């Protein structure tokens, strides 16, 4: 690991100033579970690390029915998973957070960090997609909002600019929402997803998202459109699952074959449907 400058900042404005001094060579340190590993394995060689863990405003979780849920960028996944408002109104997000790594990892890893890694198999990405989450970001030109469905641009690529700092994730409140998170992995605990899926139902509307079946986590618009207003039975489930073939592009890798991922994707979406029925 090469040497680097280290800055522990106290405000978002200070973090942005440090990024502007060296936009190409700087990396934000939040939970650090991915960043530190990549540095140790010599996959990443930053000139400077900007530690935002001391910024108090990024450690908050807030909820109201008017504003929805706000999860600060530095809130650990373990804290988020057990927060009363998350468990009560966004249970699929709590379920997903509980399955990220080990308890030790969940004590430091964050939802913002999990999303900013832009991994195709990030466990909190599919709940964020179906819950219509928005990234709250501050940069050189002030604050902006980036919907999660516009945030992922490719494997480890996002819509963030080099001097942007993610302040948190906001999720709207939707009355009567039912949700489900499903994950398939080689081991039950402390393992990356082979495939993961999230679904929500509000009235006669369904939203689904899959992870680890394409370069980015993605929604299933054809499935959603087909199911809207329909009675859920054996026939409609089968027809909906058949549409998944055209919406995903999995690959063969060390965790699974392409064909098995297609099978898992359909199985997990079916489980979501059955849980929400």
UniProtKB/TrEMBL annotation:
The keyword Flavoprotein applies. The keyword Oxidoreductase applies. Keywords: Flavoprotein, Oxidoreductase. Residues 1-176 form the FAD-binding PCMH-type domain. Pfam families: CO_deh_flav_C, FAD_binding_5. It comes from the Bacteria. Gene3D superfamilies: 3.30.465.10, CO dehydrogenase flavoprotein, C-terminal domain, Uridine Diphospho-n-acetylenolpyruvylglucosamine Reductase, domain 2. InterPro entries: CO_DH_flav_C, CO_DH_flav_C_dom_sf, Diverse_Substr_Oxidored, FAD-bd_PCMH, FAD-bd_PCMH-like_sf, FAD-bd_PCMH_sub1, FAD-bd_PCMH_sub2, Mopterin_DH_FAD-bd. One of its GO terms (molecular function) is FAD binding. PANTHER family: XANTHINE DEHYDROGENASE FAD-BINDING SUBUNIT XDHB-RELATED, XANTHINE DEHYDROGENASE SUBUNIT C-RELATED. This is Xanthine dehydrogenase family protein subunit M.
């Amino acid at each position: 690991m090469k040497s680097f400058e280290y800055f522990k900042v106290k405000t978002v404005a200070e973090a942005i100033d440090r990024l502007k001094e060296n936009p190409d060579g700087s990396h934000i340190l939040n939970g650090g579970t991915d960043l530190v590993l990549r540095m140790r394995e010599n996959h990443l060689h930053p000139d400077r690390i900007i530690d935002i863990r001391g910024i108090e405003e990024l450690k908050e979780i807030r909820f109201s029915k008017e504003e929805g849920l706000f999860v600060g960028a530095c809130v650990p996944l373990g804290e988020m998973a057990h927060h009363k408002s998350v468990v009560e109104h966004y249970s699929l997000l709590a379920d997903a957070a509980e399955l990220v790594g080990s308890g030790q990892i969940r004590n430091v890893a964050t939802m913002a960090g999990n999303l900013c890694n832009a991994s195709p198999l990030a466990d909190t990405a599919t709940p964020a997609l179906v819950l219509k989450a928005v990234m709250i970001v501050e940069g050189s030109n002030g604050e902006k909002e980036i919907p999660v469905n516009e945030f992922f641009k490719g494997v480890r690529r996002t819509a963030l600019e080099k001097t942007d700092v993610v302040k948190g994730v906001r999720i709207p409140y939707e009355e009567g929402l039912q949700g489900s998170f499903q994950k398939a992995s080689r081991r039950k605990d402390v393992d990356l997803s082979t495939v993961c899926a999230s679904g929500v139902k509000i009235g006669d509307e369904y939203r689904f998202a899959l992870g680890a079946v394409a370069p980015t986590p993605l929604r299933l618009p054809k499935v959603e459109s087909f199911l809207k207003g329909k009675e859920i039975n054996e026939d409609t489930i089968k027809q909906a699952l058949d549409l998944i073939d055209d919406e995903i592009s999995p690959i063969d890798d060390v965790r699974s074959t392409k064909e098995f991922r297609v099978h898992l994707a359909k199985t997990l979406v079916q489980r979501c449907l059955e849980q929400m029925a």
